């Protein structure tokens, strides 16, 4: 075994969004719950967790307080925060739920692709009608 330890949430291994998501999960909060407590939209929080944007200083302070981690840890991975990811506690039922959701998503994507094809055909027909008139 190696003596080297992995810094799970350090700057080389994790992003700001990774740390926010991990701390939120460790606090046993959903995105909707944390967003509500912060007074922001769920999509705003999702943007932070996906590293599409970052909160302003006042919201960053609230996030660190609600999740019981330091602002420094959220931003850099250094300071008081989580030491390593918790063990995944996956139940057999979770796999069936994920599979069901994937199937529903695939069906929605197929339906949207068919809808896009119909709209594209209609668009072409409209263009042809406009140019021949």
Radius of gyration: 22 Å
* Annotated CATH homologous superfamily of the largest domain: lambda repressor-like DNA-binding domains
| Total domain modules | 2
Based on Cα principal axes, name the global outline: elongated
In whole angstroms, how far apart are the ends? 78 Å
Instruction: Return the string of H and E elements.
Output: HHHHHH
Number of strands: 0
Low-confidence stretches: 1-5
Largest sheet: none
**Count of DSSP H/I helices:** 6
Please tell me the overall pLDDT. 82
> For the record, what CATH class of the largest domain applies?
Mainly Alpha
* CATH fold assignment of the largest domain: 434 Repressor (Amino-terminal Domain)
Structural class: mainly alpha
What percentage of residues falls in helices of 4 or more residues? 55-70%
